[in-house]
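Consider this:
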Amino acid sequence: MKLVPEALSGYQRAWLARDIIAGLTLSAVAIPEVMGYTSIAGTPIVTGLYTIIFPTILFALLGSSRLLVVGADSATAAVLAAGLTGLGIAGVTPGSPDWLAFTSLTALVCGVLLILARLLRLGFIGDFLSASVLIGFLTGVGIQVLSGQIPDLLGVSKGSGNWFEQQWHWISSLSSISVGTFAFGLATIVTIVVFKRFLPVVPGAIVAVVLLTAISAVTDASTHDVAVVGAVKGGFPPLGLPSGISWSDVTKVLPTALSCVVLIIAQSAATSRSFAFKHGDAVDINRDIVGLSGASLAAGLSGTFVVNGSPTKTEILDEQKGRTQLANLTMAAVALLFTLFFTGLLADMPKAVLAGIVFLIGVSLIDLPGLKRLWRRRQDEFIVALITAITVFAVGVEQGIILAIVLSLLDVVRRQYTPGDFVIGQDEAGEPTYQPAVPGAQSLPGLVVFRYDAELFFANANRFADHLESVISAAPDPVRWVALDCGGIDDIDYSAGVTLANLVKYSRARNARFVLVQPDIQLLATLRAYGTLDTIGEDNVFPTLEDAFRAYQADTAAMETRTDS
């Protein structure tokens, strides 16, 4: 039995000091951040601290990534809040004990779903959200997150209704803003931005929290129309099942948990993979799912909400030269000490300070450089990203998740349905040339070498056949050979096998020989099982393009000799 966690295997003593320093630095950033995320999740501030204690420890012990930081995350917090709000259950409102119980239940259900995902080896799910869709989704979440903090920054009430109605509410309330609240919020934003720009080694968020909380206490800001956090109940995280929950509630939170799980796998897998590649480490996404499952279960059993792998905090840890999960364990220890002994210091912290921290997190999620790259390079994918972003903030985060999955799957189908297809020729040196497979294209007089760069299956088989038939029928010279280049075809389902057999018959009806070029062994075995290879003929299979061209030219020469004689 392996006693050392995988993420700590091969540990070197020289890494110890760097890991501890990185963990302490990460704590300074993570503690104010996770407290801020509670304003999105609608839970007490202390629950944010809980997300980086036991969940972080469980991932460090069970996961494979050496650097991935697991804790509260803005995207999953937004999905959670939107999902629970949509339930519309009496008494289950943000900030209530029942609401917290439902957030913990959702974390538990996420943990169970992640266990199932590991057993079924579903780590590949993360690959089904394309980069463009993720850019759009996170941008939409960023807009929703930052816009949700504006009322707390201004000291006005939050509106109800859809996103546009909520924005109109604070815009129409500008005449009643709290100057003191706005001053604290603006000071928070300026402090963080200035430190990030001119002194990035010092966490601006912790400076803002300490400095502005002290100013609030000295000036007694709560008596001057500035909303403050108030007494924060500290102590050891509560352990056990959420109270007041029944089995019937599991089905109520299941859709929200499913949405969170998809996002957790996608975001954590992408983050874990990118940092593993950067340092030459092995990637084991399925093992990371085990760690994420343990983290979610720990969150649900310690009175907090859904956790996720954090790209921003992982980036901070990497910048601080952290080497292993020992840095994250250090962060968890600091968070636990803070929860046990120092939460009383938060009583005078203005709520606008947390709003300013979360506002900037929302800004950081808006991927303008990514959107610009998509606009310059792939405008169709830019439109997909834009639609996803608008859906997330204007309709809902859960709907955005569903749309993101649907758009990604549609993109896969689109690429398979309309892949690149070419007619291959030869230049004077015998090297292959590629031209679009349009009517009138041919490889040589009487020869069409057709390349289709996708698997053949029921959805694209007829389009493939129609396209090849149009090229054959419109060729400048009567086609004597039809060669299918299989270099881009890994598999053919039974429907496509029938279609291919019909294409062979069509070619022979036009007095053309149908041959296969560059098929791999597995493809030939599949065609042999369908009986399609019997229709084509084993002697009509050529291992390379050169062999096919050479055979056609020899056949043409033999035919000309017969004609001359």
Observations:
- The two ends are 81 Å apart (CA to CA).
